[in-house]
Structures are given as structure tokens and as C-alpha cells.
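Posting this for the archive.
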Amino acid sequence: MASLDVVIVNWNAGGQLRRCLDSLAKTERGGFDLSRVIVVDNASCDGSAGGLDYPALPLAILRNADNEGFAAACNRGASGSGADYLLFLNPDTELFAGSISKPVAFMESAENQRIGIAGIQLVDERGAVSRSCAAFPSLGRCVSRSLGFYRLWPHALPSYIMHEWDHGASREVDHVSGAFYFVRRAVFETLGGFDERFFVYLEDLDFSYRTKLAGWKSYYFAEARAFHRGGGVSEQVKAERLFYSTSSRILYAFKHFRRIEAIALMLVTVAIEPPVRLCSALAAGSTERARAAARGYALLYRALPRVARGMRVHE
């Protein structure tokens, strides 16, 4: 029987973490052995990782003294795993009956042995299917997302997020959502886990790209589904979210793009995107959004030399 470890990184997730664990305790376990459930708490201050009592789950809590970032926390949770599969699960998800058992059976079948990563269909509060898969970024796709062109001309200037596809059917893709990221443990270990230079955002996309280069596939499996709130606790820290998303974008570009393309994307991000975002916020009458954007870009400007050198932005 296949074995599975589940890794959940928590940072001030409040009641979402408990609802996630409740759903995990109730989901079907036919066809696999749930070896460990590891909650890695990144120095939460809301008490969300305290008093977690789930006798039905092989639960362990790992507490970081400081917020080490999502990638580093995932690697810590996966460290020492002997399971066949790792499931990296966001605390703002809730599982349904077959959310795990169905992708396990899919991955175990003989014809799918070259699939290294699987994701499932994610739905929101209204039951609508989220557009969660992505193509590998290019300079054009990154600029389109950065400046919002994909909203105006989605077919001519698409984002790397696959908004144009309804996610109704299963198919091979470049990248599945990190909210439910189901990985063969041997692949994860061979590739050295997530790149910890990404504090948060795009560490999963970077891993999917390295998985592809190593000869493995990623697959979107629409026959299973889970609820995903989206946004998560990052809604609480909008300036920091902007900082980490833009710095991760630049880091990804300098790691995987041609240098001239990486420099071009950096210039767009630091010189063109800020006034576009600020004007958009002010036009919508949201001074709060404008202040958060100004602070986020100020953080980016200070960290830019580290980002361009491929260094970790959060120490």
C-alpha cells in the first residue's frame, strides 16, 4: 500500500487550520497509509498551532522560532520522510471524501509512473472551479500579468496563470497549484526540495520547472476536488505580499530566463508597474491599496540588490 506524508505550513491561519485538519481526518483513506501529518508553524502569534488534538491523525507539530518562509518550512516538514508521496497542503483548504484517495490511485497506476506532481480541482465558496494551473512563465507572460494586460486582452496577451482554460477536464500541464501539491517523495528528494531563496510565492512553480527538466510530468487531475479559500492569511499583510510576489518574480527570472530578459522584467517591475498599480488604486478610490502598494515597492527597492544577485530576501 502506498504511503503518504502531509505537510501543512501554518502562519496565523486561525480557524482555517483546524477546518483543514478536520477535513483531513474525515477524508477517505482507502488505498494508502497516512504515515504522518506535519504542521510546521512559522512563528504564528495567533495561537492557531496550539491545542491541536486529533487522535485520528498521526499529527506532529514543528515550531519555528522565526518565520522561515514557506519553502524552508515545507522542506523542514518533508525532512526525514520515508513515504512514497508528499502532499503539501495549504491551511486554507478543506478536503472532500476522495480528495486524496483518488490522486493516490491515479499516481499508483502503471501508466502514470512518469508523473512526478499531481494537482486536483479546486473550488471556491460558491463551488466554482478555480483557474489554478499555470504555464511556465516567459518574459511576455510575466509582463502581461505584471501590468494587467491579460485582463484586457486575455487571448492575445495571456498571463502565465491559465485563465483561458476552464479546468473542467484532466490534462498534463506545466504547473499545478501549490495549495494541493502532490509529489513523489523520491522526486522531491532528488531535486533537493524547494529552493529556499523563495521566501514565499513561485517556489512551487520553480520546483515544477525543475521537475520538467528532470524528465517528469505534472498532471491536473479533475476527478478529485477540494475547497480552497485562496488569498489565505496573506490578505492581512498586503504590502508584504506585494513585496514577496515581486521579489520572487525577479528571482525566478534571474534563475531561469536569459539575463537580458531577466533585466527587462526587473525594469518593468520596478519602474513601470508601481505607477500603474498606484494609479489603479487611486482611480478606484482606495487609498488603503495605494498605501500598501507604496510600502510594498519601497520594501522591494531596498531588497533589490539581494534579489538580483539571487540571494534570499528575508534573513
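The radius of gyration is 19 Å. The first helix runs from residue 15 to 26.
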